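Students often ask what a holo structure prediction actually looks like on paper. The answer is less mysterious than it sounds. You provide the chain, you provide the ligand, and the output is a string of discrete structure tokens encoding the 3D arrangement of the protein together with flavin-adenine dinucleotide.
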Amino acid sequence: LYDRHGAEDTGAPYYSFEFFPPKTEQGLTNLYDRIERMGRAGPGFVAVTWGAGGATAQRTVELCGACQGVFGLDTLMHVTCTNMDRAMVDAALAGAKTAGVRNLLALRGDAPRGDEYWAARDGGFRHAIDLVKYIRASYGDYFCIGVAGYPEGHSESADQDQDLEYLREKVEAGADFVVSQLVYDVDVFVAWRRRCRERGITVPIVAGVLPVQSYQSFCRLVHLTGVGVPDDFRRSLDAVRANDQAVKDLGVRHAVDLIRRLHGAGVWAVHLTTLNLETTVMRVLGELGQGPTKPSTGAAAGTAGPGGAVA
Ligand code: FAD
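The corresponding structure tokens follow.
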């Protein structure tokens, strides 16, 4: 997806889309239709999330296989090592390779549901760096590897400087690029990115952006991730919270403004969390002059359903 020498600094907008594997067959069919349409906007890549502990393993691999093999989109598979023993990690990596996926986002993951704190499973991996090392040791350069970075520091880390050092170590261990936690404050992101560069983290750093689609989902995600939201945006959102369409409109305006400011600061690679929805993200891209340019391939119609061969 990226070379290790700053491909995100080229001065050309670069967008990617993130999806999660739906729980139902109908949800998957609907998502395939959306991915087919959204793929016409020419995203740099699409990413598929991984349920902590491997909860979505099969569906994640299947969706990745469809994105890569059916829709021809460069695909990034998230994989966590929380609550996963070595055999599960091996199965995940082998699944990615069989699905034709060449890109992995190597993550630790969060505590399994019901556990307040995260703890390493016996014989498992403690931190994302262990997964990066394991992938490199097992597959050499076969996979392009991304890791997560936190402009405001990771929620469990009291020391932002130490957090940055751990990020540097993940890159030194073999990560090719960094995807950031969601950005709502451009100044915070830009300052963190500068500190990354000063510390010798030279690989591309992609800004994570979630255009607000509904007040409830936004509040839930902010709570889950602990990201800071600037007061003025929070106040504007609170003022329209009862009006779904006004929330969406504000979400689009805010995301467009945020991305323009990122571009102004020389940050060209933006990773858009879609929540599996199409309209808001496509409106954002349209306003940025990056709407669909390719004709339909009709690929979605032939996409295999759950359990089917997708490669
Ligand atoms: P790590 O890099 O291991 O860091 C976790 C904590 O340990 C931090 O506090 C860090 O400071 C500390 N640390 C790191 N290295 C060391 C070390 N060597 N020694 C001691 N301490 C260390 N979760 C999912 O379940 N599925 C997903 O698909 C998913 N996608 C994500 C995508 C992005 C872009 C981001 C930002 C997060 C995503 N997450 C996902 C959430 C992620 O799993 C959690 O934030 C998790 O708590 C940390 O993962 P990590 O890979 O950053 O962990």
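Strands lie at 14-19, 45-48, 75-80, 103-107, 144-149, 177-182, 205-209, 269-273.
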